[in-house]
Amino acid sequence: MKVIEGSVTAPKGYEAAAAAAAIKYKDRTDMALIYSQVPAAAAGTFTTNVVKAAPVIWDRDIVYHSPKAQAVVINSGIANACTGKEGLDYCQDIAHKAADMLDIPANSVLVASTGVIGMQLPMDRMKRGIELLAQGKSSSLAAGDEAAHAIMTTDTVSKQVAVSLEIGGKEVIIGGMCKGSGMIHPNMCTMLSFITTDAAISKELLQEALSGSIVDTYNMVSVDGDTSTNDTVLLLANGMAKNPEITEKNDDYARFKEALDYVNTVLAKKIAADGEGATALLEVTITGAADKAQAVTLAKSVVTSSLVKAAVYGHDANWGRILCAMGYSGADFDPDKVDLFFESAAGKIQILKDGVAADYSEDEATRILSESEVTVLADIKMGSATATAWGCDLTYDYVKINADYRS
């Protein structure tokens, strides 16, 4: 596997486009299209929030009941959440408009929205935007980049990645783009992620690969503890790489799953690093756990602690907050056996040894914590299981951004 340039248009047979429809934003693109030149197998995972946006309800039906998918229409600015039957009818209208413009079945069109909750979509502008998207779609890498920018809300950077690998003697490419910055919490987050591949793989194994992949990637991200109404990950596989179709869990499946995990991990970390107001990516790794569940619980507890996040922002080696967060996680461990380290590009330092403060330099610890990516490593010495969670620091700007988000 190797990392290559591009995102959703990197695999064979995919086109993308961006358009400025003035749905909420007046000075930027705010609609995007992903289109497969041939029908594709589709997989998806969706928010666990009981309050589900209309696009989530629409997409679940398409993923679960339609044999193929061929297009995704995305808008930013308005979430189409808590909009009742009217909002769901709008999803149908969007799908039919895109189907007419692209000459494909309406039940092969997926939709996604992100932005303010409770507002109805301006359908006249949406339909005009779909016309522009259909007219402007292209297979160029630039088109994929433009689409990634169009789905941003409070994101400060676009989030994209692509990899290539060999399966059955054929080059297979997986590309992805996502958005996410705030209302981010495990069990997926306020994130939309779109992954394309030209691999030939059965719909059943495609879904299984995606469902398994999000457990250690998107579900290990937290920015602010809020689980969104719109979280969606969609994965399309159009088979244009012409590899022997993956229909069983063999070596080809393992290679595909490894590459998919890499793509999702990169995108998940990009979301965490771009948390609203963030100045640092916070990575928390628990090692020496008795089992995976224990490691996951501890890692998530630390990465979601507001006090830990504030300490990282202040470059303060306040290890007591970390141990405290581990202690109230609900996982059982012996605090007198914990070793704790801070690590970044500036170095690595042991802060705690067997539950007691180590002899370390506060100045060195501050220097390590002043980098843009900071890792907390905790060894609880109970076994061989490990887990990693990602988040970010908590800054003044987070409050500023969310205090006036609707204005």
UniProtKB/TrEMBL annotation:
Which Pfam families did the record assign? ArgJ (PF01960)
Q: Which residues form a coiled coil?
A: none
Q: Name one GO molecular function term.
A: L-glutamate N-acetyltransferase activity, acting on acetyl-L-ornithine as donor
Residues annotated to bind substrate: T153, K179, T190, E276, N402, S407
- Enzyme class of the recorded protein, top EC level: transferase
- Can you tell which superkingdom this protein's organism belongs to? Bacteria
Gene Ontology BP terms: L-arginine biosynthetic process; ornithine biosynthetic process
Q: In which pathway does it act?
A: Amino-acid biosynthesis; L-arginine biosynthesis; N(2)-acetyl-L-ornithine from L-glutamate: step 1/4; Amino-acid biosynthesis; L-arginine biosynthesis; L-ornithine and N-acetyl-L-glutamate from L-glutamate and N(2)-acetyl-L-ornithine (cyclic): step 1/1
Q: What is its main location?
A: cytoplasm
Q: Catalytic center at which residues?
A: T190
Cross-referenced InterPro entries? Arg_biosynth_ArgJ, ArgJ-like_dom_sf, ArgJ_beta_C
Which GO cellular component terms, listed alphabetically, does the Swiss-Prot or TrEMBL entry include?
Answer: cytoplasm
Instruction: Please state the Enzyme Commission number of this protein.
Output: 2.3.1.35, 2.3.1.1
Which of UniProt's keywords are assigned here? Acyltransferase, Amino-acid biosynthesis, Arginine biosynthesis, Autocatalytic cleavage, Cytoplasm, Multifunctional enzyme, Transferase
Q: What is its subcellular localisation?
A: Cytoplasm
Q: Which reaction does it catalyse?
A: N(2)-acetyl-L-ornithine + L-glutamate = N-acetyl-L-glutamate + L-ornithine; L-glutamate + acetyl-CoA = N-acetyl-L-glutamate + CoA + H(+)
Tell me, in a sentence or two, what this protein's role is: Catalyzes two activities which are involved in the cyclic version of arginine biosynthesis: the synthesis of N-acetylglutamate from glutamate and acetyl-CoA as the acetyl donor, and of ornithine by transacetylation between N(2)-acetylornithine and glutamate.
What NCBIfam families does the record point to? ArgJ, PRK05388.1
Similarity-based family: Belongs to the ArgJ family.
What is the protein name stated in its UniProt record?
A: Arginine biosynthesis bifunctional protein ArgJ
Annotated source species: Catenibacillus scindens
